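pinned: reference chain
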Amino acid sequence: MFWLLSLWPVSPGLRRDELVKDYASDKVLDWSNINWEKRLITVPDDVAKQTTRKSGDRRFIPMEDALISWLEPIRKESGNVIGVSEAAFRRVFKAVCDKARVTPPTNALRHSFASYWLARSQKEGLGRLPVIMGNSEAVVRKLYLESLEPEDGFRWFSLRQSSSISASCRALDLASYADLSSAIRVA
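pinned: its structure tokens
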């Protein structure tokens, strides 16, 4: 789970409830939904936000080089990508944010992805971003168009983790919630 908390620069535009369960019966993104060879994340209908689209809610998210560099060290064949409850996730996320002295809004990773992706892609990406995000073009235009400069988008998607962060992510991904809390306090 720790890897998600460090993904500010590379979030693939997923909603938090597509990654973290509120209830045991909720469907969330599974490692098997990631096609590494095609560099594609499939968000299945039963995981994606439910809409009234006749074509269904499944969507496909291309994996940026930056995301791959962060996920590769903790890659798995199957299982929930985030294997903890919403409450546990919220506690750890709050601790990390408190340590960093930031207060991000809900789905901040998703919104950052959209803003930086569109800045990099400019108006040519306006038709593609709603498909990736599972939004309408009107929502994308309203929230993300011309909010950043193109060079901001290129810098955002060129960020890579250091080898020490990579080792920490691998170690912390295997840790229990208590170990994560301790690691956050020590860091």
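why pinned: The domain at 2-186 is CATH 1.10.443 (hpI Integrase; Chain A). Residues 119 and 146 are 7 Å apart (CA to CA).
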